Amino acid sequence: MQKQHFGFHAFALIAFMVLQPGVAGAQFEFQFQYGNLTNPFSGNKEFTSILTVQHAAQWRFGDSFFFIDFSDDGGADGFNDKAFYGEWYPTLSIGKLVNREISLGPIRGISIIGGVNVDGDANVVKYLPGIRASWNIPGFYFLNTNFTAVLDASSGLARGGAPKTEDNFMFDISWGAAFMLGSQSFTFTGHAEYISNTTDEFLPPRDVEAWILAQPQLMWDFSKAISGTGNTFFVGIEYQYWQNKLGTPVDENAVQLLLVWRL
Q: Among candidates 51, 54, 43, 42, which has minimal Cα distance to 17?
């Protein structure tokens, strides 16, 4: 695969994060994960380290969520070998645009969402325009559902990347909740997504299976337990369930160590 696209895609994603207009509030996180993950194309398992830079922000007319994963499984099989993958989801709140509250029952807001997914190792670029519903659910400090198209803008096999696919759609739910057990503070957050089936650019086209990916995280506020101030350093686990990983017939169940430093 052609690696020269890595630098451009990394620069573009970082620029998206830095150049957001009128940011009113933002939060950075650095996450480290370590677990035994599966290469869906070979079936081999490798202990994989993932460093994630994550950024969430609110601005005048909406919000934004962004992350980049840097993965390395220590192998040399062309999968997760010092790989980079990033996603960015900016939104425009319809209520904020028209300066009035738009709600319906437990739905506290509707937003237009425009996402971009970039895989630097596989030379994949996908755009995800759609609609977000933000929910007011007791016990959660946020709960969002996204319904988007998945539009493949990759160069595909012609440029040495992963096969280009036909467009499809995604449904995603993301959440965050905080709770106490005695004097200890915990956070339960994560997301789960459904990506519909599609076909790739081979002749004849090959099926790319629909998949379900769930990544819940349970974190203990270690900084609060040590210093009393908290909300800085967390220790926990991420459970990854992936049915038909990356559209293959391979399923994955993996528990990963999770360390989080929040700025």
A: 54
- 98 phi, psi to nearest 5 deg: -100, 0
What confidence score (pLDDT) does residue 14 get? 45
Give per-residue pLDDT as tens, 55-105.
Answer: 999 988 999 999 999 999 877 777 888 889 999 999 999 999 998 888 889
Q: Count the Cβ atoms, other than its own, within 10 Å of residue 77.
A: 12
Spatial neighbors of 255 by CB under 8 A, at least 6 apart, are 35, 237, 238, 239, 240
Asked whether the beta carbons of 211 and 247 are under 8 A apart, the reply is yes
Name residues whose C-beta falls within 8 Å of residue 4's C-beta, 6 or more positions apart in sequence: none
What is the rounded distance in angstroms from the CA atom of residue 92 to the CA atom of residue 99?
12
Range name among 50-59, 77-86, 155-164 with the lowest pLDDT average: 77-86
The pLDDT value recorded for residue 24 is 53
**Which is higher by pLDDT, 144 or 25?**
144
Taking the C-alpha atoms of residue 134 and residue 111, their distance in angstroms, rounded to an integer, is: 8
| CA gap 2, 184 in Å, rounded | 48
Q: How far apart are CA 35 and CA 237, in angstroms?
A: 10
Q: What domains sit in the chain, N to C, each tagged with a CATH number?
A: 5-262 (2.40.230.20)
List own/partner pairs for 105-109 with CB under 8 A and 24 or more apart: 106/135, 106/136, 106/137, 107/133, 107/134, 107/135, 107/136, 108/134, 108/135, 108/136, 109/133, 109/134
Residue position matching structure tokens 């081999």 = 44
